[in-house]
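Help!! Second protein's tokens look totally different from the first
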Amino acid sequence: MKIALTLHVLFVVIWVGGMFFAYMALRPAAAAVLEPPYRLHLWKTVFSKFFLWVWISIATILVSGYWMLLVPFGGFSNAPVFIHIMHSLGIIMVLIYLHVFFAPYKRLCNAVNNKDWHAGSKALNQIRILVAINTSIGLVTIIVATYGKFMI
């Protein structure tokens, strides 16, 4: 159980922390100093590295989360409300990520490869909005996780 919890928290930090850094620090810095072609190349490269870690994070978070749900609680029927909330928010985050990866990120890659800076900027803006939403959901989920544990 300790290993599952450690892995769960570690990969939540990697995913949510990575989004927070990208949105709050990298995005404004890149926008301030890079012209669109360079900025779009940067984001394509950043996402290609970060998204590998997101896939690993999602797999680890889901496996460790379901393990912690099944072992002490025997499933959802015996789990406290905060576990249900965390699960629901986590699934929403995964669905948003899947959309980002398979839609606007693919459009961003194609646009950069074709030097279509207008289409690339449009795709990057869609990613920006969805990352902002996912970062917010991730932070709320962390609050639910830490606060909810004290309500048992």
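Here's the second one for comparison:
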Amino acid sequence: MTYAASTLHPKRWQSVVDLATGWCETRQLPCIALMTGTAETITGRLEVTEPRGEPQGDQSVRLHEDAIFLVASITKPVVATALMMLVERGLLTLGDRVVDLIPEFGREGKYGVEVRHLLTHTSGLPDMLPDNRELRQSHASLERFVERVCQEPLAFPPGRGVQYQSMGYAILGEMIARLTGKTCAEFLQQELFQPLGMSDTALGAPDTWFQGPAPQVDRIPPAIVPADHASGTDWNWNSRYWRQLGAPWGGMLTSAADLAKFAQFLLRGGTTSAGVSADPSTTIADAAHFRAFSNPKAGAVNRLLATATIAASTRNQLTCLRDVPEDDRRCRPWGLGWRLNWPAHSANFGDLLGPNTYGHWGATGTVLWIDPDRGHFALILTTLPQEPSGKYLSRLSNGIAAAWE
């Protein structure tokens, strides 16, 4: 494949660094990790590695180098990628009915829901179950969540509307399990994370992450939880229960370096790389906040995903759903698990990216976007939920996009 010859302008990137660190110094953001690069090179990296400014209350948490973030809904396109690997292998098609693999799903008018509807948020399923809080308070298993989704009615007939539906991804995770005989977390670990060298990534933290003198969970900065979840210390985002549940709709834990490997894998057209290195010419003087790095050789190049699959996953799939409202089809397009660019929506990737840009937000204050036309990506990981305006994420996205030449 041929990639755009983009370069990162050092002074413009420094402006991004200054903006991000300034927000941390004034406590507008608790912490942040940024990364941007091309298919083969990490060109810019920033990690605020210690508390800045005056601590708020008794919560002054050091951000470890190579911190591991709960990235929330960025999980969804990763799970969708796993599902598309099974499509490639002939185990299912996008037009297959979910009920043919999960018979109990056919209750409450859901008989006609297809795999395509789950991937494009056109199934009519809810984002969260009405008893989501009660399920989490009782430490419900993924199996229990799936059972409840099967009992839930649709908001509209499949394919006739767009409604963001995390519970569709609960079903996609169950489909992966039934087709492969492995949990969704196991399949991702074996088929994606390990081949890509994503050693600090898991869909649900395994017990080993809690063990040893320097457990990996110590590298997870606590997310700022919604006010109505603050008292739920045994079930909210920062609880061991949630970190280990492995929710296919939002339970992935990963570092900036690992998530960058996934973005680069897509920019390379679905292959692993024989070696990825940082560009030493862009090292920022503020070494406390910027750290360039080099990855060791990762071995022979191996194709994990077809270029045709990436192309299908990252183009507007709503165009083939004739009953989807025109405004949604045109202004809020979805690929297969991937959100395309919605420039006039508050949850955007900034104002400067082209129509072929794809990515995803996460409710914990995270965003990943990939610009295939110019051949680069950016990720922004924080612990501050950005709804409803996402001003930090979109402003940083603008700065990063403007820094590429």
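Reply: Different proteins will give different token patterns, so don't panic. The beta strands are 32-38, 41-47, 68-70, 202-203, 252-255, 277-278, 339-340, 358-362, 366-371, 376-382.
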